[in-house]
């Protein structure tokens, strides 16, 4: 999932108003639970409220987390879901790689959960999944910019050493201090008015890119570069300002957690309860609907068949949905949203080493290093006393950077990444054993890492993104405002399932 580096920001004291990690009760603290999705949290321990309506046959297209949670809750409520998944695995963009030395795993996709994402943590708690902290920042992590090699602590204490050409009023301030000053008014609005403040914020700023917002604040080009490089958003400067703001004001960078042993344990836990309902290796080729139901045509190997249901929940990313024949055609506004919704690129390069040299040579025990090199960012695994080996996330890139890495063949990608890492950790070639990478734009079943609004797209597209088309509902992170997060997938999947459970599809009688 998408998270700016925020290495400097994560060194700050965590605010007090973040949602608690579930304690096993399944109930949120009403004083601290995020207002968005608070009602959905009540579903996790016991399912939907009983409903007198009939039980439905529901076709769920896609076995990412949105599809899995929708099917899981529909089944718990007595409905009859069937899940169609083209791949041989579940989880979608939760993709844990297990091709390393025994005991070592790495994440090609989503790899962490903010403590404020209470719905995600509630499902982890529901399934009894072991959690551990995911260290975002570390004062001993490195900043390698403009030829300088500093620890994060040094860079915070002496920002002038990084060489950015700042205006007099910007000098001596960290990138984080500059940013907090720029968004102070908006933070006060949200702290004061809560969710209601967002309507005014969206009205004022939806047309702004991140770059345009900073320029309006009077930032020098040097300050913009400083903030963008250190906070891993240089590839996002022309994307919607609201995407960055929403994550920041929502506490998305505070107290990260991850699932011990691999993030795929969450989708696998759903799958364990849906073994008979999930059909793997089943590619959806066409969707038809009529006044009485929905028919989904599928291809399984050399065999073609179809599935009939009362309704469908489509969780396919929109670039994939564009390849599916739909009859009758979706409305023009829905077609426009499917065509125009922006999807971001992301590429990860991972390296297995026999010795965690960042620990022995630099004393870096987890956290990250930020650079202006093509690899952009490194993430270090937590210390592991059982082995000297480890998996280094040697490069995590988005946007243009990710597309450039993704255009290389695997051998070139690893070789060039090794060259960059060697400028930071000179002994990397001595301890390197094997590597792999994952470019999400090259994934046939994703065709992008996550949705990311361009300026104006929240206002122009969001209603049409989520609006049902007859008996077909839509879910996935792209249907939420938690773009790139597990939370968004879960929330949208639950909302779609609840709509069917309560017979609330506008203008449609399910019969």
Describe the structure.
With 511 residues, the protein is α/β, with parallel strands linked by helices. A hairpin with a 5-residue loop joins strand 18 and strand 19 (377-380). The longest helix has 16 residues, at 486-501. The strands form seven sheets. A five-stranded parallel beta sheet has the order 10-2-1-14-23, covered by helices on one side. Helices cover 33% and strands 20% of the residues. The radius of gyration is 23 Å and the shape is globular.
Question: In a nutshell, what does this entry contain?
Answer:
With 511 residues, this protein is of the alpha/beta class.
Biggest β-sheet: strands ordered side by side in the sheet: 10-2-1-14-23
Outline, from the CA principal axes? globular
> In angstroms, what separates the terminal alpha carbons?
39 Å
pLDDT averaged residue by residue: 92
Query: Helix coverage percent of residues?
Result: 25-40%
Helix/sheet category: alpha/beta
In the predicted model, the low-confidence regions spanning at least 5 consecutive residues are 1-36
Q: Indicate the radius of gyration in whole angstroms.
A: 23 Å
Percentage beta strand: 15-25%
List the total number of helices: 20
Number of strands: 23
Largest sheet: 5 strands, parallel
